[in-house]
């Protein structure tokens, strides 16, 4: 079969908002990779802003080798599809942090494509298929990806609300599922923000016995309860902190920095419990007191986004249970304003940028 030139078009030009390692983001045009037989081209309608985007575009995780277009909570409409694509033109899809993998290794075949050594992140990475083409994310008008990593958005979820599920949603859903959040388990969520507000809702949907929201101030006490928390702990309130000692079977740590007190965190975890790290610190090492690991069988784990199957499962579960991010929308035409609001920690709880194409979206 001869390959149609339509699927090898390298003349297309996409426009996005790029960083060279510091703000502001600047308009940047580029040629996407050729549309492969399994690929889709997606007209972006929405893209959320995550802490990882901020750490990348501000240079917090180090210098950027090339102009970087961030954005990994992407929703849009398929406008072109290769002949073997799993998605069709006109379909509304979501794209998260990982957009390709080898498909054959142990991790890929067990549903952990995000751990594949040949995976590609949606931005600031290259395709490891021999092409070495740079990947560019969703702060843009269009994106091309392997359709296996373009997920079906259930009609119950609005496109704007779907966007944060592709990172904040799956990042919190995966560890709660993996570590068995549900009846008989006490789940803690440290940090009530973009990730934490979804983690509380998932834990409630999984019917965990107790859902403890932990924050450094009282400002989110009422909201945490609205989200489904059964208990709220202000970590600066010694009495509340003490009452929660050694109580949590699973504690999700949604953010951390150089001042994070690891012994205080571990102190919340019950014997045999697990502290799960969900966000990469901007420092290379962390100092963990070993006594609790040995004397109380506490584990420290990490969890990175989710594989293909669990990501689709998470979206379908959200549709069924009503778990939704709380968002504010801002225009992508002024991405620096949206990034600023995110960096100031103002949104409750996620900023989603909308492109002009969002207005053209018919109810899907
Ligand atoms: Zn993210
Ligand atoms: Zn693989």
From TrEMBL:
GO terms for molecular function: metal ion binding; oxidoreductase activity, acting on the CH-OH group of donors, NAD or NADP as acceptor. Keywords: Metal-binding, Oxidoreductase, Zinc. Gene3D superfamilies: Medium-chain alcohol dehydrogenases, catalytic domain (3.90.180.10), NAD(P)-binding Rossmann-like Domain (3.40.50.720). Residues 18-353 form the Enoyl reductase (ER) domain. InterPro entries: ADH-like_C, ADH-like_N, CAD-like, ER, GroES-like_sf, NAD(P)-bd_dom_sf. It comes from the Eukaryota. Its cofactor is Zn(2+). This is Enoyl reductase (ER) domain-containing protein. It comes from Linnemannia gamsii.
